[in-house]
Amino acid sequence: xxxxxxxxxxxxxxxxxxxxxxxxxxxxxxxxxxxxxxxxxxxxxxxxxxxxxxxxxxxxxxxxxxxxxxxxxxxxxxxxxxxxxxxxxxxxxxxxxxxxxxxxxxxxxxxxxxxxxxxxxxxxxxxxxxxxxxxxxxxxxxxxxxxxxxxxxxxxxxxxxxxxxxxxxxxxxxxxxxxxxxxxxxxxxxxxxxxxxxxxxxxxxxxxxxxxxxxxxxxxxxxxxxxxxxxxxxxxxxxxxxxxxxxxxxxxxxxxxxxxxxxxxxxxxxxxxxxxxxxxxxxxxxxxxxxxxxxxxxxxxxxxxxxxxxxxxxxxxxxxxxxxxxx
Length: 327
Description:
The structure is a single chain. The chain folds into two domains: 46-198 and 208-214, P-loop containing nucleotide triphosphate hydrolases (Rossmann fold), CATH 3.40.50.300; 223-323, Magnesium chelatase subunit I, C-Terminal domain (Helicase, Ruva Protein, domain 3, Orthogonal Bundle), CATH 1.10.8.80. It is 47% helix and 16% strand. The chain has 14 helices and eleven strands. The protein has a five-stranded parallel β-sheet with strand order 2-5-8-1-9. It has a two-stranded antiparallel ribbon with strand order 3-4. α3 crosses α11, α10 packs across α11 and α11 (261-277) crosses α12. The longest helix is centred in the last third of the chain and has 17 residues, at 261-277.
C-alpha cells in the first residue's frame, strides 16, 4: 500500500477520534495533552502513569473515556493493606456444590484506574504487573485472559510521600507513557467553576465500540515509519545510555541508566498513534518529539549528582533533543 492509499484509509479509520474527543470535551475542560495521551495509550495498546496533584480530573478523565467507548471501568484505590486477591480475585468454597469457585476481582475490566498505585506493597504491584504485561490473571491453578481493549491508568500523588512504596524499575518500564499534569489556566478554571455550579454535571455518551478500538490498533501498526525516523528514535534512546558518544559528556555524571529497548519500541508505537490521531499515514520527526518526554521521563535513572543539582529527567531529555540531529 502506498502512502496516499494509507493516508486515505487512516482518515476513514480515525474519524471516531473526533467523536471521542468531542464527547470528552463535554466533561474535561482543558487538559488536551492528557486526553491525547489517553488516546495514544488506548490506540497503541500501552498503559499510562499519571502524576499530578489531587483534583486535576485524573479519575474523571478515564471514567469518561470508558463511557465513550462503551467499556467496563474499575477504580481500585491502592492502600498499604491491599492484598493481591483484592485486585485479581480469589477462590471461594461453595457449600452448595462442595467445590471451590473462582470469584474474579476488579482487574477484569477494560479500563482500570489504579489510584495512588505507589501506596500498595510489592505483592499487589506484582499481581498488577502480570495483568499489564501478560494480559492474563492467575487465580489458584487457573489463568484467565483479560478482555480487549485493556488499559491501566495508574496515578501517583507527588505531594504526600509518607507511607508510599516506590514503584520498581521493572514495573515503571511497563508503562508506555508517564504523563505530568499541571494546573488549568485561569480561563479554564472559570469554565470548570461554572460547569460544577450547574444543576446537573455533564455526562459522556457511548460513541465507540470496543471492536472499533481493536480494529484501529491494527491500522495504527500500519502507519509508515521511514528508516530515517527509526534512526532518529534509536539515536535519542542511545543518547540516554551513552551521552558521551553524542557530544553530551556533561550528562554522563547525571545519568545512572538510560532507556531500555522498550523505550525505543514505545516511542515508535506512540509516534504512530500520534500520527493516527492527526489523521496522517506516516510518522514525522515532530511526532517523535511530541511523545518523547512522556516515553522517556520514567526510564532515565538520575545519579545523586543530578539530584543534588536539582536536575530532572526533563532537563536531560531537552538537551538530548537539542543535540541529536533531526532527519
